[in-house]
Amino acid sequence: PSNLALVKQLESHPAFNINNPNNCYSLFLGFGRSPVNFHAADGSGYQWMGDAVLKVDGLNHQVAARMVSAFTTWRQYDASRQALMRAQLERIVAHPGLSENVFEIASKSLK
User: Fold this and answer.
1) How many CB atoms lie within 10 A of CB 111?
2) End-to-end alpha-carbon separation of the chain, Å?
3) Contact 75, 34 (CB under 8 A)
4) Cβ(34)–Cβ(56) below 8 Å
């Protein structure tokens, strides 16, 4: 399996608790710091992280706000990756019921 598939499996590992901020930081932000996996050319890493931000935002706004920071450097990448990262930020900002914490970081990143 791909690295992303393996990381996705960790979400269902008995030791992982999505309600524990340190677990979220370790899994999600750890993945977000991986140039090869997070920045995969097909955008799969961005999609997964966008989904994770929205999932965690429903549980802990502050943790999700820190996670969305993985997208804030989108302008530093090639045009293709910029478009993929920007699309995730736009999807996150448009999500109904999004917390103010995440909205503030994601929307400022788009300006």
Assistant:
1) 4
2) 37
3) no
4) no
- 3-state DSSP assignment of residue 26: helix
Mean pLDDT throughout 29-41? 93
pLDDT digits (tens, 9 = 90+) for 36-55: 999 999 999 999 999 999 99
Is the predicted pLDDT of residue 26 greater than 80, yes or no?
A: yes
- Residue 32 CA: distances (Å) to CA of 51, 78, 110, 111: 13, 17, 18, 22
As given in the structure block, the two tokens for residue 22 are 């340190």
Q: Rounded to 5 degrees, what angle do the CA atoms 64, 1, 89 make?
A: 25
Query: Which residue has 């996670």 as its token pair?
Result: 67
Q: Is 80 exposed, middle or buried (0-12, 13-18, 19+ CB in 10 A)?
A: exposed
The DSSP output letter for 40 is -
| Number of neighbours of residue 17 by Cβ within 10 angstroms | 11
pLDDT, residue 1, reads 61
